[in-house]
Amino acid sequence: MKGDMCLAWSSDEQIFKRAEYGGAVTALLKFALESRMVDAVLAVKARDGNRYDGVPVLITEPEKVIETAGSLHCVSPNIARCLKEYLNGAFDMKIAVACKPCDARAIIELVKRTQIEKENLILIGLNCTGTLPSATAKRMFHEEFGIDPSDVIREDIEEGKLTIRLKDGTEKEKDLDELEEKGYGRRENCRRCDVNIPVMADIACGKWGTNGRKATFIEVCSEKGSDFIEKAIEAGYIKVEKPDSAAIETRKRKDEEEVKRARKQQEKDFAFLRGMSTEEKFNYWLGQFSRCIKCYGCRDACPICYCKDCTLEADRGTVPPGEIPPDIMFPMIRIVHVMDSCVNCGQCQDVCPAEIPLSRLIFMLNRELGGIFKYEPGMDINTPIPLKSVTDKELTMAGVEIQF
Length: 404
Ligand code: SF4
Ligand code: SF4
Ligand code: SF4
What we know:
Elements: E1 5-10, H1 13-18, H2 24-34, E2 40-47, E3 50-59, H3 79-86, E4 95-99, H4 101-112, E5 121-126, H5 134-143, E6 152-158, E7 161-166, E8 171-175, H6 176-181, H7 188-191, E9 203-206, E10 216-220, H8 223-234, E11 238-241, H9 245-274, H10 278-289, H11 297-301, H12 329-338, H13 347-351, H14 358-373, H15 392-395
Parallel strand pairs: 2-4, 4-5, 5-9
Antiparallel strand pairs: 1-10, 1-11, 2-3, 6-7, 7-8, 9-10
Helix pairs in contact: 3-4
C-alpha cells in the first residue's frame, strides 16, 4: 500500500549481474511490458553507447529494456515535453515512464493542464541529486580529474562529493562545492533542486538506504504503484525484503542533507537578485534580455509552455514582429505564463543561446508565488494551479505583490 517501503532486486540473473543496484527498475519496466500493463516504456539510453549523449527511447519489446539500465548523469532529456509533444500525452497509449523528480513534477503539471493522461501512465520515479552538462563534464574530467572522459563508466553525487568510477575499476572523488566554484559540476538548476526523491510518482526508486546491498530502495507512493509492485512480486520479476529502521533512517538523513544543501544554494542564487531595489532589478533583467535573439528556444523547451497557438508568435500582434532584441513583453509574457508551475528543470536555461539565467529568475519567482499560495508545483496532483484557480479572496488580498 501507499507508504510501504522495500529493498528490491531483479530475479533475472542477467539483469541482476549487469545492474549496479540489483536491477529492480529494469525488471519492473520489463514486467510492465510483458504483463501488458503498458503498451510501451519511456526511458533514456546512451546514444550509440555514448554516456554523454542520452536520448529518450520508446520501447515496446521487453528484451530491449535492459539497454536503458544504469544512470546517465551527463544528460538531461526533456521527458515531460517528449511525452506531451511526441507521444500525444499518452492519451492513446499506456506508458511506463522512468523519470527523475523534475520530469515527474512537470508531467503532473501537464496533467493538470489536460495535456497528459495520467490514467495511462505508471510513473517509475528515480531519485536524483543532479545532472551535469555533458560538455562541461567532459572538460572537467580532463582538467580536474586528469582522465579521459571515455574512461568514465559511472558518476555518483552524494554528500557533497562527485565520485567517478573508471573502466579499470578505480574511483576518483572530488569536493562538489570546489568543482562548482570553478564552474564545473552540476547544472545550475540541479544545485538548487530540493526534491531528490520523486514521491509524486507511483513508486520512488533509489540507492539511499540500501547500505551496501545490491538492491534498490523503493517507496510506494500511490495505490497504482502498490498494485504494480504487488503484481511484479507475484509474477516473480523482483524479490523484496523489508528495510530495517537503520536503512529507512539513512535514506531520510541523506535526503535531508541534500535538501539542506539545495536550500543553501537557493539562498545564494537568489540573494543577489533579492538584494536589489525594484529599479535595479528591472534594469538588471532589461540588460539580460537585451541579449535575447527571440529564437523561441526557451518556449519550445519548457515543459510547462504548452499552448498550441502561442501568443508570442509574430502574427499574433502581442509582440511587435521583426525586432531583435524583442520587446520586453516577449520574456515577460512567457515568464508570467509559466512561473506558477515552474519545476526548476533548467531546460529553458540549457537551450538559451544568449545564456540568460532564465531558470534562476523563473524559479525564484515561483518560490515567491509558492510562499503566497502555498503551492509546490508537481508535488500533488489534486492541488489546483494557483494562477488558473484564483479565488475572489485571493484577488483582493492585501500585500500580494510580485516583483521582477
Ligand atoms: S532538477 Fe532536480 S530532479 Fe531534475 S535533474 Fe536536476 S537534480 Fe535531478
Ligand atoms: S521555466 Fe525553465 S526551469 Fe521552469 S519549468 Fe520551464 S523550462 Fe523548466
Ligand atoms: S532561449 Fe534565450 S535567446 Fe532564445 S528566445 Fe528564449 S530568452 Fe531569447
